[in-house]
Amino acid sequence: MSPRASRTDPQIIEMPAQKMAVVSSVGAPDKVFPQVMPALYGSVYTLKFDLKKKGVPTFKVSGLRARYPNAHLVPKEKWTIIMGLPVPDNTTSLPQKVPGVQVRVETWEYGTVAQILHLGPYDQEAPTVERLHKFIAESGHEIAGLHEEEYLTRPDAKVVKTLIRYPVKKRQ
User: Fold this and answer.
1) What is the mean pLDDT of residues 79-90?
2) Residue 2's pLDDT is what?
3) DSSP labels, 64-104
4) Residues 22, 6 within the same domain
5) H or E element: which one contains 107?
6) Number of independent structural domains in the chain
7) Partner residues linked to 80 by β-bridges
8) Residue 22 sits in the same domain as residue 102
């Protein structure tokens, strides 16, 4: 098996809960992301630099995550999109940088998850998602939470890399 094949094989792993800076919106991702990203990233980077000024060990701003609770139910223009960036566990509030866009602190629970690495454009994820769904069923699990994507590269990267994941539980 080539290294590329193994990297893109679906897997079931354990993930700890993660404190997140979160914004929510409704609409097609290509319209929503540019509207809310300045607020989300602005809050998280301001937090990072405020901590640094106070001499507190800082954190790396890592991959953006997005949850799509109704993407399988409604047209893309009506999707609910919940975007988050990991923040330190002791974060209780966030600086608000963009008027009208509330950035809140939440804990995203994980536990047992199934995930797969998708290489390529976002609009070509369907076969990868189907492969993950099949893997979940064949492994004796069922989906127990929201479709989540973690963006490992920028949208304009030569090869776009996206982790697609679902919380899962053993089938009864």
Assistant:
1) 96
2) 35
3) EEEE-TTTTTS-GGG-EEEEEEE--TT-------STT---E
4) no
5) strand 104-108
6) 2
7) 26
8) yes
Say if residues 87 and 59 touch (Cβ distance below 8 Å): yes
* 3-class DSSP assignment, residue 2: coil
Given 54, 74, 108, which residue is the final one in a domain?
A: 108
Same domain for 47 and 125, yes or no, is no
For residue 118, the cross-strand partners are 162
**Rounded to 5 degrees, what are φ and ψ at 39?**
-70, -45
Residue 125: which domain range?
A: 1-15+110-172
What is the per-residue pLDDT across 112-158, written as a single tens digit (0 to 9) for each? 999 999 999 988 999 999 999 999 999 999 999 999 999 999 888 99
C-alpha 37, offset from chain centre = 13
For residue 62, what are its two tokens? 């890592």
Cα–Cα distance, 30 to 8 (Å, whole number): 25
CA–CA dist 109, 103 (Å, integer): 18
pLDDT of residue 75: 92
